[in-house]
Write a structure and sequence with these properties.
By secondary structure, the chain is mainly beta. It folds into 5 domains: 66 residues, no CATH class; 79 residues, Sandwich (Immunoglobulin-like); 119 residues, Immunoglobulin-like (Sandwich); 151 residues, Immunoglobulin-like; 101 residues, no CATH class. It is 3% helix and 42% strand. It has a 5-stranded mixed sheet, with no helix packed on it. A 5-stranded mixed sheet has the order 17-23-22-19-20, with no helix packed on it. The longest helix has 6 residues. It starts with a strand and ends in a 19-residue tail after the last helix. InterPro entries: A2M/Complement_sys, A2M_N_BRD, Ig-like_fold, MG2, MG3, MG4. Belongs to the protease inhibitor I39 (alpha-2-macroglobulin) family. This is A2ML1.
Length: 672
């Protein structure tokens, strides 16, 4: 019998009479941490089967689920004498409102004086709605609302202000590159209700020099390199001009690597002015590449595939563009020429048989050789880099999950394809192989599980069993925004094959809400209907604020991302309290055997922490795969690579230390 514990889900995988049965879930109620927010507990698992006895224990971290609180005022800025209205909402990590009583809610002025308090406040369906009347002589500055013993704050400002009539915006450019010969500058001005403003515009586009105090007097006052434009605003409320890059200094070090756009718009008939200024960075990047749909490990003797996304200097996808893929291996470099498709993606499929189970680095390049011409404006290409480690596996079989690209929508069924290859050496004829899968999201301590049996017999395919199956998945708020999928199969001989991927899911909520006006445009003083749709029985909190207020003091509006951001999480590792290390026999972590050759002289050590681990290896194994999704595994299956206590790869085991360029392997003194 094999037994596994998956953070609260206990699965026992029995085997009897040559037939391997699917796992079944066993839920265990975990007690809350005693006297704190977290506690380290020990989980013991025991399995007994035909000629098998298994027992193992591991540490797990039990944490209390923390709630999130947000405070929202009806606007970000007030004048003395106005009424401040604000709401308080507490949510669980699954976005369920909490109706617990607030012992105290405090309001403090800019001098940290408590000017109001509310005691024993009870929410109404999770929402607290409070208000406070500011005095006509209220102190100007930033006020704060504190909830939960001061652990959560909301702020607003009290100022004497005049609401702006219109908004000035630099529409173009959003970014600049040394690869461009010229660029368009476009500045627009519109009233707060959207109508274009008419009048005159004055626009200056300048590159300013750096100020070097140590330079000689002749260079202390370098002139600004500017283009000034004045003219009538067009009927769309905009003014545009083209600027040549040649008027700027792009090769020297005396001018800034950005331009400043300053615009003044004067309203026709009133002479009222509105201003804006914006700095635009001049990038020297000519193009960029990134690897996509790849892992950081490969299965020896199985093809390794992936894609390279290629972009130009402006971030646009480069279609049908030739690039280079360089494979850096122990036997030298191999170059391939790839061509992107209409999505800017260049696909590749590599034979790993000649990699000899060693680490390999992949590099995507625009050019095989870097060139430099002092007569040209300096620029660079951002190449793509990927370091691959061999995946340690005791089986000859393979399992791979196909990735879903893009941000996936909630509530829409998805089909995830899983490819597999089962070698006859890993399973006997007439044996059924069951694939288990888990979808996990540790942000919300949520997991779903299922099983997919493969009923084909090896006797029907005497040489191999190869194919694919699909897993139907539908994502919701409990799995958003970055769930992981783990698929694995355990063979009767103890071998395991597995794979994992991580999805990107939109930040959604189960209660779908829509808000709008009918009609969407109306004259001042006219009636307008507010249309609000939500789940039946929902308590809806609505606020309306003049857009001029938001122009005067832009604030971080309540959004899906801000609500999700209240619940941080860890990923791709075990918490340090329950970390697992395989240590060599007789090894003392703090009194380890020193190498015969000192890899880094002590005088070259820096002040950062150095941990020496003689058993460090470049290989990735099943244990690290499960660890990277935060799963604790208790099993007698073969999921770990053997520990190598005899040699040390300094490049990977000396963490955060320098000076390992010349020494690769070192013999160690035997322990006393």
């Amino acid at each position: 019998m094999w037994a596994q514990l998956l953070l609260g889900i206990l699965a026992l995988l029995p085997a009897s009479a040559g037939k391997f049965l699917p796992a079944f879930p066993c839920l265990a109620q975990v007690p809350l941490p005693s006297g704190g927010t977290e506690e380290v507990a020990t989980v013991r698992v025991r399995g007994i089967g035909n000629n098998v006895y298994f027992e193992e224990k591991k540490k797990v971290l039990i944490q209390r689920q923390q709630n999130g609180i947000f405070i929202q005022t009806d606007k970000p800025i007030y004048s003395p004498g106005q009424e401040v209205r604000f709401r308080i909402v507490t949510l669980t990590s699954t976005f369920v409102p909490v109706n617990d009583q607030y012992s105290i809610v405090e309001l403090q002025d800019p001098n940290n004086n408590r000017i109001a308090q509310w005691l024993n406040v009870v929410p109404n369906q999770g929402i607290v709605d409070l208000s406070f009347q500011l005095a006509p002589e209220a102190t100007l500055g930033t006020y704060s609302v504190a909830v939960g013993d001061g652990k959560t704050f909301g702020t607003f400002s009290v100022e004497e202000y005049v609401l702006p009539k219109f908004k000035v915006e630099v529409v173009e450019p959003k970014q600049l590159s040394v690869a461009e010969d010229s660029f368009l500058v476009k500045v627009c001005c519109r009233y707060t209700y959207g109508k274009p403003m008419q009048g005159v515009a004055h626009v200056s586009v300048c590159q300013k020099p750096y100020i070097y105090r140590y330079l000689d007097p002749e260079r202390e006052h370098l002139p600004d390199r500017c283009k000034n434009v004045s003219g009538q605003i067009d009927k769309t409320g905009c003014i545009s001009t083209s600027v040549a890059m040649s008027m700027f200094n792009l090769t020297g070090y005396f001018y800034r690597q950005d331009i400043n756009i300053m615009a003044t718009m004067v309203e026709e008939g009133t002479g009222v002015e509105a201003n804006t200024t914006q700095d635009i960075y001049i990038s020297s990047q000519m193009g960029s590449m990134t690897f996509e749909d790849t892992n950081d490990y490969y299965y020896p003797n199985f093809p390794f595939s992936g894609k390279i996304r290629v972009k130009g200097h402006d971030g646009s996808l480069l279609q049908y563009h030739s690039v280079y893929l360089v494979i850096h291996g122990e036997n030298g470099n191999v170059n391939q020429i790839l061509t992107t498709d209409n999505n800017g993606l260049a696909a590749f499929n590599l034979d790993t048989a000649n990699w000899n189970g060693k680490s390999v680095s992949l590099e995507g390049r625009f050019q095989l050789e870097e060139t430099y011409d002092p007569k040209k404006v300096p620029g660079y290409y951002q190449n793509a880099y990927l370091h691959l480690q061999p995946f340690y596996n005791t089986t000859r079989s393979f399992l791979g999950i196909r990735r879903l690209s893009g941000i996936l929508a909630c509530g829409q069924p998805q089909e995830v394809l899983v490819d597999y290859y089962i070698d006859p050496a890993d399973a006997k004829p007439d044996e059924e192989i069951t694939f288990s899968y888990y979808t996990l999201n540790w942000r919300k301590s949520h997991q779903d599980s299922g099983y997919h049996p493969i009923f084909d017999k090896l006797k029907d395919a005497p040489l191999r069993l190869k194919g694919s199956f699909s897993l139907p998945l539908t994502f919701n708020s409990r799995l958003a925004p970055d769930p992981s999928l783990v698929v694995y199969a355990i063979f009767p001989n103890g071998g395991v094959i597995a794979d994992k991927i991580q999805f990107s899911v939109e930040m959604c909520f189960d209660n779908q809400v829509s808000l709008g006006f009918s009609p969407s445009q109306q004259l001042p003083g006219a009636d307008v209907d507010l249309q609000l749709r939500a789940a039946p029985g929902s308590l809806c909190a609505v606020r309306a604020v003049d857009e001029s207020v938001l122009l005067l003091r832009p604030e971080s509006e309540l959004s899906n991302s801000s609500v999700y951001g209240m619940f941080p999480f860890w990923y791709s590792h075990y918490p340090y309290q329950v970390a697992e290390y395989d240590e060599c026999p007789g090894f003392d972590r703090w009194n380890f055997p020193r190498p015969l050759i000192e890899p880094v002289p002590e005088e070259r050590w820096n002040n950062r922490f150095v941990m020496w681990r003689p058993w460090s290896s470049e290989e990735t194994d099943l244990f690290s795969l499960f660890q990277n999704v935060g799963l604790k595994i208790l099993s007698n299956a073969k999921i770990k690579r053997p520990i190598d206590c005899g040699h040390q790869n300094l490049e990977h085991s000396l963490m955060k230390a320098g000076g390992t360029n010349d020494i690769r392997t070192t013999a160690f003194k035997p322990p006393p």
